[in-house]
Design brief:
Length: about 210
């Protein structure tokens, strides 16, 4: 008697996105460690076998998606449709601050780095709709901001014996969230750049732009 195996007939972008959304919610609610989350997202992004997607979320609660997350067809960026904080502040003085993974940025942010560093990674962030303002002051310190494709970037900065470096494409995508960055660097550096190369390749592949 022949045993019937799983039929892998292809994976739609919608199905892949639903699994990744569940993983993001699980990570945000401390149900997954960072390394486990990243590994599962990597599999969800690259697998061609439908049954593997199910394995990635089998051990998660069915109602993990407490807040709706919408994704546009042109962008892998998650939009926070829930409550958005109006402001937040990140201060790195003789120390470092890092914000990455799944998180909810405020609509307005202030960053201060004095002989320290601040890193904000928006790759898996659930962005507020519309414009997010970031104001930066760096003195003998560094600020690094990573912005994935699908988010508009508008920068205005000045550096004195330091650097203000914007490496993002700065494409204008209608309807996409926008990060508006202004800053001053004195004997310090401000960098705005895409996600790390390996992750960037996966995002571009997902968008069909590789």
């Amino acid at each position: 008697m022949n045993e019937r195996k799983d039929l892998d007939i292809g994976i739609s972008n919608y199905m892949r996105d639903k699994v990744i959304d569940k993983l993001k919610h699980a990570y945000a609610n401390d149900l997954l460690e960072e390394k486990d989350f990243e590994k599962r997202v990597e599999i969800a992004t690259s697998t061609r076998q439908r049954h593997e997607l199910g394995y990635l979320i089998d051990d998660l609660p069915a109602d993990i998606e407490k807040l709706p997350i919408q994704q546009t067809a042109a962008s892998p960026v998650s939009i926070n449709r829930g409550k958005v904080r109006e402001s937040s502040t990140f201060v790195g003085i003789f120390s470092g601050i890092e914000k990455k993974g799944v998180w909810n940025p405020a609509r307005s942010m202030k960053i201060v780095a004095v002989m320290g560093g601040v890193e904000l990674d928006f790759t898996h962030a659930e962005m507020p709709p519309g414009i997010t303002d970031i104001k930066i002051f760096a003195m003998m310190g560094g600020v690094e901001i990573r912005v994935p494709p699908g988010i508009n970037v508008d920068t205005h900065g000045f550096a004195f014996m330091g650097g203000f470096d914007d490496r993002c494409p700065n494409k204008d995508i209608p309807g996409a969230p926008t990060i508006r960055i202004s800053g001053f660097a004195f004997l310090g550096g401000i960098e705005i750049k895409p996600p790390k190369k390996k992750l960037m390749q996966k995002i571009l592949k997902k968008l069909g732009l590789d």
